[in-house]
Design brief:
The chain is α/β, with parallel strands linked by helices. The protein folds into 2 domains: 225 residues, NADH-ubiquinone oxidoreductase 51kDa subunit (Rossmann fold, 3-Layer(aba) Sandwich); 93 residues, NADH-ubiquinone oxidoreductase 51kDa subunit, iron-sulphur binding domain (de novo design (two linked rop proteins), Up-down Bundle). It contains 18 helices and 10 strands. Strands 1-7-6-10-8-9 form a 6-stranded mixed β-sheet. The chain has a 4-stranded parallel β-sheet with strand order 4-3-2-5. The N terminus is likely disordered.
């Protein structure tokens, strides 16, 4: 098992790791266009580029590449859906990365911006796009690096516009992204139509995560068989993950899919305490006991079979110095504050769930805690699948996983009140309540 941390790697072969974070020089250095071409060669010379759009889509399908933004949707299906429209399409690289626990897209753009920009050009070829955007949160550390990289690229056939979003969690949702670029607010809209049907400027729009497009740039150069040289049959290739919590090395790592948590944490210097639980898939994912997932291969298919989620590769490990209930309560309150507040499940449901979870976790009234537990079990089902976007679903999934995983802790909290470590905050949450949506 090979792993690359935040610093990246000085030298590597395309057949080994790292694939995305290779710098060819100082660890963590930003790869300029000259170095990028030395490492990867000119995109225009890649056989798939010369082969045209149909060949490119076929090889992406053969590679088994899945989107790295969270849902793990097959990339070739998205490409085909937009290409079939036979209209002037648009490509958007989504690097907004609104979740506080994720850093992978930021690290990728700061290290290898030209891989992402190559991927945008390839996406444009594959779907017949004439315009493209790279979508970043306002104030992103990668912003100036991307601007410099764009200025270096004088031969790109499809112009790329750098679009910024407010620093809000939900601003990276696909319909919110389209709304923002179209001059509206970065809030989700009801679908259909979906972006591949009518997106930016009313045109068919391919929206792919920045990491997905970077993989596309490498597949175009090395082929589907090369891409499948790492990973598993169901989850081929490598992936960036952000790991935090009770581990000795925190940050962004590039792993071969199929690597276990045990292998990953060992490669990063081990854990700082005995792991008790793991948050997998990020704040839209869920908690699982460490014992149940420690040796499960990391990937969409394998984690789904284990009742967990890979999501956007966000992993948080906790030990007995951290209260999983308290961490969940803080995230649920963050969700309530960050929602677009334009439909019932977000406007009313999420604040109610957050308050009930806080009472259960931090309250000292046994009767009130029991009432909150009963309400949570009922309300979780009421908000699921009823919002304009998936935010209520993510909050419900997180809350339910906490109720299941921390059942023993819940019993102790109900009987004795908050535990000794409930006030220790491990996972990042930040309120953007002072920032508008425009």
């Amino acid at each position: 098992m090979s792993v690359e941390t935040l610093a990246g790697s000085q030298h590597a072969s395309p057949t080994t790791l790292p694939r995305l974070l290779i710098t060819g020089g100082e660890p963590g250095a930003t790869v300029d266009l000259r170095t990028h071409l030395e490492l990867h060669g000119r995109l225009a010379l890649a056989p798939l580029v010369r082969g045209g759009d149909a060949l490119l889509r076929k090889v992406i399908a053969d590679s088994g590449l899945r989107g790295r933004g969270g849902a793990g949707f097959p990339s070739a299906v998205k490409l085909d859906a937009v290409a079939r429209t036979s209209k002037r399409a648009v490509v958007v690289a989504n690097a907004s990365e609104g979740e506080p626990a994720s850093r992978k897209d930021q690290v990728l753009l700061r290290t290898a911006p030209h891989l992402v920009l190559d991927g945008i050009q390839l996406g444009a070829i594959a779907v017949g796009a004439t315009d493209a955007y790279l979508y970043l949160h306002r104030g992103s550390p990668a912003h100036s690096i991307v601007e410099r990289a764009l200025a270096e690229r004088t031969e790109d056939k499809v112009p790329v516009t750098l679009a910024t979003a407010p620093n809000r969690y939900i601003a990276g949702e696909e319909s919110a992204l389209v709304n923002q670029i179209n001059g509206g607010l970065a809030k989700p809209t009801y679908v259909p139509p979906r972006p591949f049907e009518s997106g930016v400027g009313g045109r068919p729009t391919l929206i792919q995560n920045a990491e997905t497009l970077a993989h596309l740039a490498l597949i175009a150069r090395h082929g589907a068989t090369w891409f499948r040289g790492l990973g598993t049959g169901e989850d081929p290739g490598s992936s960036l993950v952000t790991i935090s919590g009770a581990v000795n090395t925190k940050g962004v790592a590039e792993i071969a899919l199929g690597t276990s948590l045990r292998e990953l944490t060992t490669a990063l210097g081990g854990t700082s305490g005995a792991p008790t639980a793991v948050l997998l898939g990020g704040y839209y994912g869920g908690w699982r006991s460490a014992e149940s997932v420690w040796d499960v291969p990391l990937g969409h298919a394998s984690l789904r079979a284990a009742g967990a989620s890979f999501g956007a590769g966000i992993i948080a490990v906790i030990d007995d110095s951290t209260c999983g209930l308290a961490e969940t309560a803080r995230i649920l309150r963050y969700f309530a504050n960050e929602s677009a507040q334009q439909c019932g499940p977000c406007l009313n449901g999420l604040p109610a769930i957050a308050t009930a979870f806080e009472t259960l976790t931090f309250g000292r009234d046994r009767k009130a805690a029991n009432q909150s537990l009963n309400r949570l079990q009922r309300w979780i089902g009421l908000v699921s699948k009823r919002g304009a976007c998936a935010m209520p679903d993510g909050a419900a999934q997180l809350a339910k996983s906490a109720l299941d995983t921390f059942a023993a802790e819940i019993d102790a909290h109900v009987r004795r009140g908050p535990c000794a470590v409930a006030n220790r905050s491990l996972l990042p949450v930040h309120s953007a309540s002072d920032e508008g949506w425009s």
